[in-house]
Fold:
Amino acid sequence: MKIKIVSLKIKREKTITAEVIDSSAKAGKFLVELIGSMDREHFIVMALGTNNVINCVQTVSIGTLSEAPVHPREVFKIAILSNSLNIIIAHNHPGGTLNPSKADIELTEEIKKAGELLHIPVIDHIIVTDTNYYSFAENGLL
Structure:
């Protein structure tokens, strides 16, 4: 039997100016610009280092107009590879509503529990439209 010897690397696709994310409002503004106008749901992870500086941002899933499939394993992969301290998860609602769905709330709880096991806290889940954001942390859902 042959065993694969592997190495893991992060491939940089593009670079943007690093941001310190010291509030949900600042994260929301950044995310509105990044994914707010997308025509399908994009689920992303912002991996944060010390002092809440963005280490990297990864698109975990691109779905349809009303959903994007997400698995916690995929959410934490980039956080582990980038040696991040905590994460913010986010997705857009192309339909324009900011209110989280039942599925959004359940997924957030599932990812939060996985983060607790890995000691990588989920400090916010932000939903964006093309002009505004909704923060789970600001609204007491996280």
